[in-house]
């Protein structure tokens, strides 16, 4: 009983100290994020290489200022990983924080209301590429850590692992993890790179889709041809590519690649009923993205189609004349970037192989095709009965006043599965973004409310996780 | 008898005078063409507007130097038409020469072995955008005219009408013709904007395909979306566009637009047998453009597919992320440029309307589509029993030593049909280019042999046409 009082007392004091510190430093916390958002760390495009490195150095400096030890940029075959740690007591649990400082390309630039790398705050939102994904959400952890250190309330050991290649498939992270197994030992991986259902409906992501991403090239004639002189007599690679892509979905929007669904984990009616309890308004959903109708696999509802079902989407297509006016040409080549989202228990490598085999098999003799695998990742489902999940749930409940809902997301964070296999650690996905944040789109933004809520909620997770271990 | 001797004498003398003059001025004739090829007169792209005008002025100046009267740039709503004439005797027949000084866009630039607007002569060919289509072939007429004037052998009145918008559908030429009916009166229209079967197999084009050119836009969500969070639940406009395009050909490569073939003129077995007599080697054809197999409409051979049958080809397609690396996005919009080649007796306007109606009708409710007509043109068949055709045939026979073969081309010169309807004049299509000249492609070229042969053959056409009228 005494212990209980004492505990609540400590808790109250520490909570109020934490909240006071956050309140006193709010403007600086925001301005530091804006500074980072000004650096265009687009990992997919080599011409931003120097900016990617500047961003890594920015994170490194802020981590050190926040109180981390052994802060360094660990070289990889690609962009460096920012590492830093604070070991206060080896007997305490250790939280391994993962995030990424690279961002998606910002094009099409013309659709942004303000330049993607000149952040502005409007109507309570920070607008910039990376505002939410993942600079904003990653930086909440740096500032929450600073808060715990400065208020002397850090309840766990912490290790930070902030990478710069998430948007290009974390191509070198598995190697980094393998080569640093000892220094990465811990009890849980904490990640904020997902979203919540809403500010009044906090949620924790308990499942993620995997991915297989390929680029295809279809070659017809060995040079561009005059569509008048040759039209009708030779294979037009664009028409052929369209036919090949079209054939990959049947009339029910099932994917036709042989064996594609072989290992797909079908949910039970109970599980689907449980999912259906999450608040969802189809009309609002359509209105938010300007759709007159949704579109997807027969036999599944929208929230299932974008989370527990695999997909095949063309992310980019190009070929022939795309300039102003009209050019009557038959292109020599046509290209597409195609990604498939995977669900348990599909294997990225296996699906990529099946795609390649199928794509080559359906190509008519009149063209040649090439399939280049880009990157992949495995799907995951994280446990909801773990101490980490319970601690996170409790933390959200305290800051939002509502118990968070567990949801399966359609997104992919391939490294979650890799962490499990390489380090034997589960991840807890404490996302504070919203679906409406337009990540990967023009006008990406992140609510100041969400950013600050994250900084408030994270210290509570540390406290509860320490208490429960 | 006396007349006959006298005639042959005159002919021989004039022929030798003409050949002497051409021989003496060959280098200058070539250099003047190279000068014109250095001006990038791309009509499809506004940024070349000034160069287009410079090219018009270049042609105007050369025509005047060659001896034309009343040379002027006639303004239109678009690029000016270069007009010039030489009326030597109202009782003589009048030849109306048509050509165009604008060229196709040169991209993709990286596939050119030498810059498209820095002409080079290699292995007897002039390499440059427009070398053949149509600057080279148009300029043959200017130099042939100069030759006839300077050697005092001009046998007909001449009128030149050289436009600057052929590659964008001659959008303002019909208006020009209507507004200049009087000054454009004549007996025949002479055009060199087509090809020959080979240097040892001269041919005259007696048929051309028409065209309907449209640009389509498919819109799904109102902004680009994250393919993880939305993939599978919303219509991906690129996938949908591919499905719509794919559905426009059936398994026999027949076009599925309702009513598309309604007015197509079917050739008789006799006509098809006659066509089949033109020299054609399928293996050579495939080898020349690097195809392992041809591809086209069931029931027709290659030479029919690219001349007497209508087509539907995607000339350009774009949407989503087309940059380096991978971006997991569902694009808001996808686009395609689509051209349909038409044959007698299809109507461009009617086909465009049918396409629009069909395209809109097959769009799923989950997307919105827009169809923008670009430009069109009507198919034509020109008579082979006319004095003009016979005069052209005789001219080729004298310079090539072989009687030319009449062929139907798959290309389109929409204005041929317009000239017939507006001026009541037939055209004779004296082409000197080859299918291998790569017009509309990188490394377009024109044989010096062909250029000079054209300059030699054209004066003979004038002579025979005058004799036959």
Largest interface: A-B, 103 and 103 residues
- How many strands appear in the DSSP assignment of chain A? 20
Low-confidence spans of chain A: pLDDT under 50, at least 5 residues? Answer: 1-9
Protein structure class of chain A = alpha/beta
Shape descriptor of chain A reads: globular
Domain count of chain A, please report it. 2
Global Rg of chain A: 24 Å
Total number of helices of chain A: 12
Mean pLDDT of chain A: 94
Task: Specify the biggest β-sheet of chain A.
Answer: 6 strands, mixed
Strand content of chain A: 15-25%
For this structure, the quaternary state is homodimer
CATH fourth-tier homologous superfamily of the largest domain in chain A: Zn peptidases
Present the secondary structure layout.
The structure is a homodimer of 469-residue chains.
Chain A: H1 2-37, H2 49-66, E1 69-74, E2 81-86, E3 94-100, E4 120-122, E5 125-127, H3 135-150, E6 157-163, H4 173-179, E7 188-191, E8 195-196, E9 203-208, E10 210-219, E11 225-226, H5 237-246, H6 269-276, H7 282-288, H8 302-305, E12 313-320, E13 329-330, E14 333-342, H9 348-361, E15 368-377, E16 380-381, H10 387-400, E17 405-408, H11 415-423, E18 427-429, E19 433-434, E20 445-447, H12 448-468
Parallel strand pairs in A: 3-6, 3-7, 7-18, 8-19, 9-17
Antiparallel strand pairs in A: 1-2, 2-6, 4-5, 5-20, 9-16, 10-14, 10-15, 11-13, 12-14
């Amino acid at each position: 009983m005494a212990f209980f009082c004492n505990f609540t007392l400590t808790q109250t004091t520490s909570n109020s100290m934490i909240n006071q510190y956050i309140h006193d430093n709010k403007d600086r916390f925001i301005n530091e994020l804006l500074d980072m958002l000004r650096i265009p760390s687009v990992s997919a495009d080599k011409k931003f290489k120097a900016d990617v490195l500047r961003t890594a150095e920015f994170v490194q400096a802020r981590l050190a200022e926040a109180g981390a030890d052994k802060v360094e940029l660990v070289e990889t075959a690609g962009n460096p990983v920012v590492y830093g740690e604070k070991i206060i007591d080896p007997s305490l649990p250790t939280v391994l924080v993962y995030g990424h400082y690279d961002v998606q390309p910002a094009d099409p630039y013309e659709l942004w209301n303000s330049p993607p790398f000149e952040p502005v705050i409007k109507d309570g939102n920070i607008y910039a590429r990376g505002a939410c994904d993942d600079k904003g959400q990653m930086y909440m952890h740096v500032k929450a850590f600073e808060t715990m250190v400065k208020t002397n309330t850090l309840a766990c050991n912490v290790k930070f692992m902030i990478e710069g290649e998430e948007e290009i498939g974390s191509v070198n992270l598995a190697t980094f993890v393998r080569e640093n197994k000892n220094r990465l030992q811990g009890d849980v991986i904490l990640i904020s790179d997902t979203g919540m259902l809403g500010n009044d409906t906090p949620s924790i992501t308990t499942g993620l889709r995997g991915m297989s991403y390929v680029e295809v090239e279809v070659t017809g004639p060995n040079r561009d041809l005059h569509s008048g002189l040759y039209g009708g007599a030779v294979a037009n690679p664009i028409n052929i590519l369209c036919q090949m892509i079209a054939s990959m979905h049947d009339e029910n929007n099932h994917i036709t690649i042989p064996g594609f669904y072989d290992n797909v984990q079908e949910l039970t009616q109970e599980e689907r009923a449980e999912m259906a309890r999450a608040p969802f308004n189809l009309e609002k959903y359509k209105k938010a993205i300007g759709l007159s109708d949704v579109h997807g696999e027969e036999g599944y509802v929208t929230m299932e189609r974008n989370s527990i079902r695999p997909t095949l989407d063309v992310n980019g297509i190009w070929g022939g004349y795309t300039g102003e006016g009209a050019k009557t040409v038959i292109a020599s080549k046509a290209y597409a970037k195609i990604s498939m989202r995977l669900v348990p228990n599909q294997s990225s490598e296996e699906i990529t192989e099946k795609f390649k085999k199928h794509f080559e098999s359906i190509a008519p003799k009149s063209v040649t095709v090439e399939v280049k695998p880009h990157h992949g990742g495995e799907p995951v489902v994280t446990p909801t009965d773990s101490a980490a999940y319970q601690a996170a749930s409790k933390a959200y409940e305290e800051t939002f006043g509502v118990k968070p809902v567990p949801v399966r997301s359609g997104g992919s964070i391939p490294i979650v599965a890799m962490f499990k296999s390489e380090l034997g650690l589960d991840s807890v996905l404490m996302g504070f973004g919203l679906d409406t944040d337009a990540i990967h789109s023009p006008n990406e933004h992140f609510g100041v409310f969400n950013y600050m809520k994250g900084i408030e909620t994270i210290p509570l997770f540390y406290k509860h996780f320490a208490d429960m271990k």
